[in-house]
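Quick question: what would this complex look like in 3D?
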Amino acid sequence: MTEGKSEITPIELFFEIERGDFVRAGEASSKIKKKLLRLGFTGSTIRCAAIATYEAEMNIVIHSLGGSLKVKIYPEKVVLVAKDEGPGIPDVALAMKEGFSTAPEQVREMGFGAGMGLPNMRNCADEFEIESREDVGTTVTMVLYKGG
Amino acid sequence: MGSLIHAVTLDKDKCKGCTNCIKHCPTEAIRVRDGKAKIIDERCIDCGECIRICPHHAKTAITDSLEEIKKFRYPVAIPAPSLYGQFKGNVSVDKIISGLYGLGFFKVWEVARGAEIVSKVTERYLKEHDLPKPVISSACPTVMRLIRIRYPELVDHILPVDSPMEVAAYMVKEELAAEGYAREDIGVFFISPCAAKFTIVKNPLGKEKSNVDGVLAISDIYGPLLEKIKEEKMNKVLQKSTSAGIGWAISGGESRLIKDRRHISVDGLTNVTRVLEDAMMGKLKEVDFIEALACSGGCVGGPLTVENPFMAKERISKLSEGITGELPQVSAELADGFVYDKPITPQNVLRLDEDMVKAIKKMGEIEEITEDLPGLDCGACGAPTCRALAEDIVRGKADELDCIIKLRENVSGLAERMVDLAKKMPPSMNQYEKRER
Ligand SMILES: Nc1ncnc2c1ncn2[C@@H]1O[C@H](COP(=O)(O)OP(=O)(O)O)[C@@H](O)[C@H]1O
Ligand code: SF4
Ligand SMILES: [Mg+2]
């Protein structure tokens, strides 16, 4: 009956993220961080989780039509999946470049749109994957290993 | 981590077991058990919020008494600049200092001067080191504790430089030693607006041992000091600090001395938490320096002060207007000596279990229990919120029936069962009963 590791159910968190909702952006990041702290994750994992989820939230708020953030916490790793319903990224390689941004002027005026979100996510996560289809949506998956 | 000594404590006799404090504690470090509040030491950050809120004055801070100074041949007072904002009317800094001499101190060395040195050391340190941005001031021990227990990812943002209090204590000891006084005869006492300073003297940050030998609460010495100030006729010039150092008593006083860098100053724990949350998410990259003070208004709002913090702030503002005079020259050698020897480490006191697998299980249980609790956050169970009770239950420190609503459900369930049971009589008796009717 018992299958070793699969016996523990990971902690799962789910956050809906609405397009244009700047007020609540950051809430998911803050909640995830609090859980990780109680579970005993350390500085570097917590730092990356907080930054990566905030950037992912912001991308959904700014660039997408709306989406969600799903988090699974296992004893050895944290898996973050940010998924939205479009419009998708036409050139993912370009979007991944440091400093590249299509953020509209009024968003830049608010201090967003430095074009560092995706690169920062990739740099701090141990595993990073981005999949995007025009008109369908974008899914960013990140895995952070404990103490990694 | 060892046992944590800390300043904020409970006077059991005065505690009525009301739940005011548990609701106001920013780190949820208080529970009411057996009719008395209990502080969870490793979670307390000595912010003094409970001291301010307790209607029965049952929360106090351990500090030293004025008697202690007699243990030293040469007792030295190092007054916090916030002391200068505590007096009504035209009480000059010179008068306050001479009042301190009147209390029996052999020497008075102003912490405001220590602050001026710290400003110099900070300037130098920021120039020579590339700390992750934003750099966070280490001046407030409550904020330091908050970061160590709640923001482990920010510990390397902390400016590893001694506080003005430590610097003042060091300087005056060196001065007196150079004049030929035996070090063991010198006792340095900080005149404090702050409970957390007592704690940090006992468990110093970034070094093995503090140079401070005792901490006296402003509120404790206020009465005697006022007497001495009134008696004082002479008008000698004793003040050596400048407006730069005195400004440290209020929020913004430290950061205004940081030149050519973008800085923000934030005061009050709720605001500090907001800023730290943003820093944690990487939102504050364009900010170079954060001055963060736990008390509203800065140290003038410290829990051991006497005067209304807004009045005190107004006076300090006047005393620190403009920045008169140059900051002191600090040699490279001296400056390096004020940099921490030990790194600041996180203190994970919130973790549910050493074993991550168990911790995850426990968190699952907490969720389940929280779901099942009424969600009133009423505090009657002695925990600040239903979630906190759930966590206490999982940690083995409380019971579900501590929740009065749960207890009531159980009691009414039990009552129903009793009624049912009462109806179930042995057949023989049943018949007897029937006959009676
Ligand atoms: N979820 C998304 N949906 C559509 N486009 C996106 C999404 N996330 C990122 N992008 C595109 O990739 C670019 C780079 O993203 P990022 O590195 O986060 O920088 P920034 O958000 O500051 O523009 C964005 O300007 C946008 O054009
Ligand atoms: S703001 Fe000042 S008085 Fe208040 S806790 Fe911090 S250092 Fe102490
Ligand atoms: Mg972005």
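Answer marked as accepted. Chain A has one domain: 11-145.
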